[in-house]
Specification:
- The chain has about 725 residues and is an alpha+beta fold.
- It contains 16 helices and 37 strands.
- The C terminus is likely disordered.
- The structure holds guanosine-5'-diphosphate.
- The site of guanosine-5'-diphosphate has 22 residues, from helix 1.
C-alpha cells in the first residue's frame, strides 16, 4: 500500500467511509430502519411508512406490496456525529460517507445475501424486541460469520407489547454464541419507551415523541436506577474488551485508568476483529434510537482500510493468488455485485471498487469475457435520486450506466491487472415450472424479459423443454419464481400462465461405459454420414461435463470435432431416464469414420448424440433430487410430531436441541416432500412452529419413487 491511500480529489477520506448492510428476519423492521437512517442523514425529507407502500429502498413495486426487500440496492448517504455535551464520540463533527447495501431477508434469496455480504464491510443485524432471534436470522448470521463481517445488533420494536431487551440479548449470547455487549439500553419499554442509556458515556438519551417528522433528543444525567444498570453494563464492556483486545487488556491488568475514548477504540478494534458484537435497543418506527445507532455504525464498524484486502486469482494460473489493496494509487479492480434494470436510465451495474479509481470515459477490462468496455456514465444512488459522478474511488460503491457484457459476480479491472476476484458461490436451481404468455403475440416480449432477468440473477435459469417446446424457468424456491413472474408482468408487461412448480431433478451415470453412434442416409442425391465412438466415465460431484479428444489418424476429420463436441453437450441436456439434465460425466471421444462426400457437421453432431445415448444406456444412469437443509423451531410439546412428520417426508434428522422450552430440529429432507410444508407445520404445532429451508445437495432418488417421477413427467402442463 502507498503511504497515503487517499487521492487528493476524493470527497471522503477512506477512513471516513462505511459500507454497511442491514440484515434482518422478514418483518423485524429493516425497511423502516433503512428509511429512518435515510431520513436522519438528510437523504429524504419525509418519513413514508412501510404500510403506505412509499419507502425508498424498495423500488420494486411488488416488494412494496409484499413488504419484503428482494433486491440489494445500494444507497449513499452522509452522516456527521453531532457534538453532545459530555458525550464522547470517536469521529465527532467529521463528515462520514455511509453506503447502505440492502440485503434481502427471505431465504429463497440466499444468493443475493451472500453476494451483498461480499461487498460490505460491516452490518447491522436487526432483531424484533418481541420475537428475538429467529431461525432465519441465524442463517444470515452464519453467512456473515463465513465472510467475516463485523456486526452491530439493533433490537428493534422496543415499543411493542411484550418487547424484552434483556431476553433478546440473552438469546444473542446463547443461540448465536457471541460475546455481546450492551452499548445502548432502552429506557422503558412498550408504551413507556423513552430513549436509551448510553452506557459508555453514562448518559440518558431522551427522545421527543414526534413520530411523523422524526424526533429530536436531549442528553440528560442518569437517575439512580439507570445509573445502576449503566454501571453493570459498563463493567461488562470493560471486561469483554480487556479480554479481546491486547492494549486494553494490558491496562486492565495493570489497573491503569482506561478513558472512555480508549475503551471505545478498544471496542472498535474488537468489533472489527469479530470478537465482540455491540448491541443497541430502540424503535425505528417510533424514532427512538436511530441517530445513536448510526453513531455506533461510524464508531464501531470498519472503514475499507480496516478489512483484509480483496483476494483474487490470476485467470491464467488458478494457483496464483493476487491481492487488491484498498488504495487509490493501486491498479483498478472492482466487483460487479448487482445488475438492475432502472426505469429511467436503463441497465445499471452496481460495483464495489477494491483498489484504484475509475472515471467516466475510462475503459475497464472483464477477465471473464476477455473484453474491454468504455464507461459512459457513473452514478451514485442517493435515495431516489441518481447523482452523476466523475470518478469512483477505492472502497466506494457506485453504478455504471449502459455497460453491456457484464453479469453479476464479474470482476472489472485494469487490463494490466488481470485478476479474477473469487466469484461468490451460487447454488443450483432446485425448482422449475413451465411458463407461457397469455397471448401468443407476447412470446417474444416474454423471452426478452426472461433473458434480462436471467442476466441479473445468477440463480435463475431459463430453458426450453425439448419434448414439449415449453419455456421452463428454474430457481431457488417457489417465492423466487413467483417474484420473477410478477416482475415479468410489471416491468415487461407480459401476463403469463404458469404450471405447477416441479422439482429440478438431475441425472447422472454410476459406471463407465462405451458408446457408438452412426448416422447413415444414402438414398439418392447427397447423403448423410457420421460415425462416432466414445467412452463415458462418472465425474466427481460438481465437476460437470469434461471432454477429451483422442481421435488419431484423422478417423474423424479435424473440422468435424467441434460438431461432435456440440452433440456431446446437447445430449447432456436431456437424460434418458426422464429427460432431465445429465451432470458430472467425463467423455473421451476415441474413434469414428467418415465419408468423402456424405459427411458434414450435422451428421457428426447427430452421430455423437446417438453415441452418448448408447453409452448412457449402459452406464447405469440414476436420478438425483435436491435435498434441503430444513430447520424447524417449535415449542417442546410439538417436537415429537414435527419429527414424525419430517420422517414421513423421507427426512433424516441431523440434530435436535432445546433452549428455554423451544426445540430446534435440523433435518435433511427431499424438496419434493416439502410442498405445502408451511401450512402443515402450522397445523401440527397449532401455529407455533416456524421453519427455514435452504438447498443442501443433490442425492440419488430411491428406486420406488423414480417410477412415479417418470410417470408424472410430461404432465407439467401449463395451468
Ligand atoms: P422488514 O420486513 O424487516 O423490512 O420490516 P418492515 O420495516 O417492513 O416492518 C415490518 C412491520 O413492522 C411494519 O408494519 C412496520 O411498520 C413495523 N415496524 C417496524 N419497526 C417497528 C418498530 O420499531 N416498532 C413497531 N411497533 N413496529 C415496527
Amino acid at each position: 500500500m502507498s503511504d497515503n491511500p487517499n487521492s487528493p480529489n476524493r470527497p471522503y477520506p477512506l477512513d471516513r467511509t462505511r459500507n454497511i448492510g442491514i440484515a434482518a428476519h422478514i418483518d423485524a423492521g429493516k425497511t423502516t430502519l433503512t428509511e429512518r437512517i435515510l431520513f436522519y442523514t438528510g437523504m429524504i425529507h419525509k418519513i413514508g411508512e412501510v404500510h403506505d407502500g412509499a419507502t425508498t429502498t424498495d423500488h420494486m413495486e411488488q416488494e412494496r406490496e409484499r413488504g419484503i426487500t428482494i433486491t440489494s440496492a445500494a444507497v449513499t448517504c452522509e452522516w456527521v456525529q453531532k457534538k453532545n455535551e459530555g458525550v464522547v464520540k470517536l469521529f465527532e463533527e467529521q463528515k462520514q460517507r455511509v453506503n447502505i447495501i440492502d440485503t434481502p431477508g427471505h431465504v429463497d434469496f440466499t444468493a443475493e445475501v451472500e453476494r451483498s455480504l461480499r461487498v460490505l464491510d460491516g452490518t447491522i443485524v436487526v432483531f424484533c424486541g418481541v420475537a428475538g432471534v429467529q431461525p432465519q436470522t441465524e442463517t444470515v448470521w452464519r453467512q456473515a460469520t463465513k465472510y467475516n463481517v463485523p456486526r452491530i445488533v439493533f433490537v428493534n420494536k422496543m415499543d411493542r407489547v411484550g418487547a424484552d431487551f434483556e431476553s433478546v440479548v440473552g438469546e444473542v449470547r446463547d443461540k448465536l454464541g457471541v460475546t455481546a455487549v450492551r452499548i445502548l439500553i432502552p429506557i422503558g419499554a412498550e408504551d413507556h419507551l423513552k430513549g436509551q442509556i448510553d452506557v459508555l458515556n453514562k448518559k440518558a438519551v431522551v427522545y421527543s415523541d414526534d413520530e411523523n417528522f422524526g424526533s429530536t433528543f436531549e442528553v440528560k444525567e442518569l437517575d439512580a436506577e439507570q445509573a445502576a444498570i449503566a454501571e453493570e453494563a459498563y463493567a461488562e464492556i470493560v471486561e469483554a474488551v480487556a479480554d479481546a483486545d491486547d492494549e486494553i487488556g494490558e491496562k486492565f491488568l495493570m489497573e491503569e485508568e482506561i478513558s472512555i475514548k480508549e475503551l471505545k477504540q478498544g471496542l472498535r478494534r474488537a468489533t472489527i476483529a469479530n470478537k465482540i458484537v455491540p448491541i443497541a435497543g430502540g424503535s425505528a418506527f417510533k424514532n427512538k434510537g436511530v441517530q445513536f445507532l448510526v453513531d455506533a455504525v461510524v464508531d464501531y464498524l470498519p472503514s475499507p482500510l480496516e478489512i483484509p484486502a480483496a483476494k483474487g486469482q490470476d485467470p491464467e494460473d488458478g494457483d496464483k493468488e493476487l491481492i487488491a489493496e484498498t488504495d487509490d494509487n493501486g491498479k483498478f479492480c472492482s466487483l460487479a455485485f448487482k445488475l438492475w434494470a432502472d426505469k429511467y436510465v436503463g441497465k445499471l451495474v452496481f460495483f464495489r471498487v477494491y483498489s484504484g479509481t475509475i472515471s467516466k470515459g475510462d475503459t475497464v477490462y472483464n477477465p471473464r469475457t476477455r473484453k474491454r468496455e468504455r464507461i459512459g456514465r457513473l452514478i451514485q444512488m442517493q435515495a431516489d435520486k441518481h447523482q452523476e459522478i466523475e470518478t469512483c474511488y477505492s472502497g466506494d460503491i457506485a453504478a455504471i450506466v449502459g455497460i453491456k457484457n457484464v453479469t453479476t459476480g464479474d470482476t472489472l479491472c485494469d487490463e494490466s491487472f488481470d485478476i479474477l476476484l473469487e466469484p461468490p458461490s451460487f447454488p443450483e436451481p432446485v425448482i422449475a415450472m413451465a411458463v407461457e404468455p397469455k397471448t401468443k403475440v407476447d412470446q417474444e416480449k416474454m423471452s426478452t424479459g426472461l433473458g434480462r432477468l436471467m442476466e441479473e440473477d445468477p440463480t435463475f435459469v431459463v430453458k426450453t423443454d425439448e419434448e414439449t417446446g415449453q419455456t421452463i424457468i428454474a430457481g431457488m424456491g417457489e417465492l423466487h419464481l413467483e417474484v420473477i413472474i410478477d416482475r415479468l408482468r410489471r416491468e415487461f408487461s407480459v401476463e403469463a400462465n404458469v404450471g405447477k412448480p416441479q422439482i429440478a431433478y438431475r441425472e447422472t451415470i454410476t459406471k463407465p461405459a462405451p458408446g457408438e453412434g452412426v448416422l447413415k442416409k444414402q438414398t439418392g442425391g447427397r447423403g448423410q454420414y457420421g460415425h462416432v465412438v466414445l467412452d463415458i466415465t462418472p465425474n466427481e460431484k460438481g465437476k460437470g461435463l469434461t471432454t477429451e479428444n483422442n481421435v488419431v489418424g484423422g478417423a474423424i476429420p479435424k473440422e468435424y470435432i467441434n460438431a461432435v463436441m456440440n452433440g456431446v453437450e446437447e445430449s447432456m441436456t436431456n437424460g434418458i431416464i426422464a429427460g432431465y439434465p445429465v451432470v458430472d460425466v467425463h467423455v473421451n471421444v476415441k474413434d469414428g469414420s467418415y465419408h468423402e462426400v456424405d459427411s458434414n457437421e450435422n451428421a457428426f453432431k447427430m452421430a455423437a448424440i446417438f453415441a452418448m445415448k448408447d453409452a448412457f444406456k449402459k452406464a447405469k444412469t440414476i436420478l438425483l433430487e435436491p435435498i434441503m437443509d430444513v430447520e424447524v423451531t417449535t415449542p417442546e410439546e410439538h417436537q415429537g410430531d414435527v419429527m414424525g412428520d419430517l420422517n414421513r417426508r423421507r427426512g433424516q434428522i441431523q440434530e435436535m436441541g432445546t433452549k428455554a422450552n423451544v426445540a430446534i430440529v435440523r433435518a435433511k429432507v427431499p424438496l419434493s416432500e416439502m410442498f405445502g410444508y408451511s401450512t402443515d407445520v402450522r397445523t401440527i404445532s397449532s401455529g407455533r412452529a416456524s421453519y427455514t429451508m435452504e438447498p443442501s445437495s443433490f442425492e440419488p432418488v430411491p428406486q420406488n419413487i423414480v417410477e412415479d417421477i417418470i410417470k408424472d413427467r410430461g404432465t407439467a402442463a401449463v395451468a
